[in-house]
Amino acid sequence: MQCSVVVPLLNEREQLPDLIVQLKELKAFTSCEIILVDGGSIDGSVEIATAEGFQVITSRAAEPRK
Q1: Which of 23, 25, 49, 66 is found 20 to 30 A from 7 (Cα to Cα)?
Q2: pTM above the 0.85 mark?
Q3: Is residue 53 within 8 Å of residue 22, measured between CB atoms?
Q4: What pLDDT digit, counting tens, does each position of 46-59 carry?
């Protein structure tokens, strides 16, 4: 069975180090594919995640619900 974990990001520089540790543990013990989806970060989140070896897809941020 293939599993995918999709994690949304938006300016997560401060939280990213802890998240990366958790995602690396998940990756080590499962065969899950981990995809980070960035909604337009301007704080270096994409560069940090990419440098750690994660696949990052960029997208527009979701519009607020009315």
Answers
A1: 66
A2: no
A3: no
A4: 999 999 999 999 99
